[in-house]
Amino acid sequence: MSGTFLGMPAFPANAARAVQDSQLRHNLRKATHTIRAKRLSTIAEVPDWRELREAAKAVKDATLRDLDRHLLCLEEQVTATGGHVHWARDAAEACRIVAGLVRATGETEVVKVKSMATQEIGLNEALAEHGIEAYETDLAELIVQLGDDRPSHILVPAIHRNRAEIREIFLRSMPDAPPGLTDEPAALAEAARLHLRQRFLASKVAISGANFAVAETGTLVVLESEGNGRMCLTLPETLISVVGIEKIVPTWRDLEIFLQVLPRSSTGERMNPYTSTWTGATEGQTFHLVLLDNGRTDVLADEIGRQALRCIRCSACLNVCPVYERAGGHAYGSVYPGPIGAILTPQMRGMGSPLDASLPYASTLCGACYDACPVAIDIPEVLVHLRARAPHPPAERAAMGAAAWTFSRAVRLTRAQRLASRLRRLLPRRLPGPLSAWTDTRDLPEVPAESFRDWWSRTQGGPR
Amino acid sequence: MSARETILRRIRAAVADAPEVAVPRDYRTASGAGGLGGSAVQDLPGLFAERVDDYRATVLRAGPGEVAGVVAERAAARGVERLAVPPGLPEEWLAGLCDVRLLRDDPPLANDELDRAHGVITGCAVAVAETGTIVLDGGPGQGRRALTLLPDYHLCVVPAGHIVRGVPEAVALLDPRRPLTWISGPSATSDIELDRVEGVHGPRVLDVVIVGN
Ligand code: SF4
After folding, report:
1. B27 versus A412: which is more confidently predicted?
2. Is the CB of A321 under 6 A from ligand 1?
3. Alpha carbons B4 and A245: distance in angstroms, whole number
4. Could you say which architecture CATH assigns to the domain B43-211?
5. Which residues are paired to A288 by β-bridges?
6. Which of A35, A223, A261, A265 to mutate to test the pocket of ligand 1 (most atoms within 8 A of CB)?
7. Residue A423 burial by Cβ neighbours in a 10 Å radius (0-12, 13-18, 19+)
8. I need a surface site. Which of A11, A283, B15, B126 has the fewest CB within 10 A?
């Protein structure tokens, strides 16, 4: 993947461009609506979904609360079962560790299972600088890599491409694509199978992420669909897994919750086709685990923001988000798009760039993401919290401060509303000065002659 | 300071004020707690068969003495001439096969040999009714992980007594120290327009034979 997110303009500009692209909008709409319906029906058949969600949330909170202890336990277990554990403070350090491990094997090619953590740290590009070629093996990642494109979805990075576009990419960039390739999904999948088969059989080193790491036993868990994960985890002599420190669950038993909520929330299936678990060096393999911080401890330090670390990357919040559906994943300028990206990226990278500072605003606060989230991350709450932390122009800051003062006491609000009603004929249609930017894209609501609160206390809700 | 020390110190500073968390386990657990009455499923093999079928795998039922016949019929139907066999598989399951070359994985077959096999036959450690999942743990009759990965056809024999209600029951029975493979239907992808299509890298055809009631 040579596409980069660096130096992208802020979200509004990206989104404005994306909504002009009717093919993109069509692809996204079709895909997200398919998955929404499937998710709802597989969740509806689970009688204890609410209880599972409560438990999933609590397990993750408990993990974060004692993360140091769990990490040490994980390290001890992985080491005791023959694996090697490495710690990386940031992306550069993680890339350096992985490149060093690959070079030590003498290999110059590696196969990769789709992993958000390795995308986040830009591992493929870093390996290329060391003369190591990384081959993505997940179908969607392959589409992105061959198309010299960027991922736009957590689970299905090529969601912005339809079957006809995928066929074109394969014919153009896959030397061994069958000449009569059609755009039937089964034919496209077959082409990928043939393309990667020999590579799987020949590769000596694989790089993966993990969905979960069990502290108590040192077990790693990867959920997937295609079998490329199994190929990478099983066949090569050396396996290197790059895992964010928040991927831990304390006990083996905790998987009974996550193996239920994750597949149903992500692809809307009762279970994904393949889940692999392994503990330490398995079946004669050499195993390295790289534990990655890269901004996660900054997120952890924020009392409200830290709930973002519960995320199990199911992508349900993307699939239900009206903003994501229209703007697409690229507009978020990060490997984590959609609602979760809007709260995770600015916390992990900070809000120094215009793009990152604009992300907490890439939402209508409709709350669909919170309802869909299997670990109950209150994304709207975190968005509002981050908006307050984002750099603001002085006029806006003053207005927000006044609003906070007014809304925090009922009596002040009542007084302010009565004053506004009395003066309503005098109010302008546009806000003055720097605040006019707000009314450029919105109609200023009319102030009613009587506030809701006054109407309610006068009528008690009117005739019923 | 080492990266390890730095990260651990950052974590301790970050969560110093975080409250203790108790985990409520009010969902349906393996011990039958959870109080939702969901464990009332009587016909586990029936539910398992229905859920496996939903993944577009083929499900067959066999009486205890009929396994060899069903296995032979399946192998013929799928055109299998070279069948990989893990150590420890009950010999009587293979008794009906003729004109099929058995590739015994003992000593282990080379990967390209395995790649040329048409299919593989295994048992399983546990099966999950609600999700239509088979779990292999590398024990007798299941083999190492590559065995059920490289051949394009997987024939899995599931004794009815191995079928449990849900995921919690399976997790409780399984040993995390063994490498586990949870299989729910044939290899598939949802990467093209988020629609499940069968068949990428793993076995593209899965037949499941449930033995007994
Ligand atoms: S925030 Fe919640 S819904 Fe979104 S990807 Fe993470 S776990 Fe899934």
Report:
1. B27
2. no
3. 11
4. 3-Layer(aba) Sandwich (3.40)
5. A84, A240
6. A265
7. exposed
8. A283
Give the residue whose CA is nearest to atom 3 of ligand 1. Answer: A373
* Chain B positions in Cβ-Cβ contact with residue A235 (cut-off 8 Å): 111, 146
Predicted confidence band of residue B32 (pLDDT cuts 50, 70, 90): confident
* Model confidence pLDDT, tens digit, residues A172-231: 999 888 889 999 988 999 898 999 998 999 999 999 999 999 999 999 999 999 999 999
Best residue in A297, A314, A325 for a mutation probing chain B (most B CBs within 10 Å)? A297
**Helix, strand, coil in percent for chain A, rounding step 5:** 55, 10, 35
Asked whether the beta carbons of A276 and B179 are under 8 A apart, the reply is yes
pLDDT recorded at residue A439: 61
What are the structural domains, with CATH classification, of chain A? 65-294 (3.40.50.10420), 404-459 (no CATH)
Q: How far apart are CA B84 and CA A84, in angstroms?
A: 33
CA of A380 to the centre of ligand 1 (A): 13
Q: With cut-offs at 50, 70 and 90, classify the pLDDT of residue A1.
A: very low
Contact yes or no for B93/B101 (Cβ under 8 A): no
Q: Does residue A446 contact residue A424 with C-beta atoms inside 8 Å?
A: yes
What's the pTM? 0.88
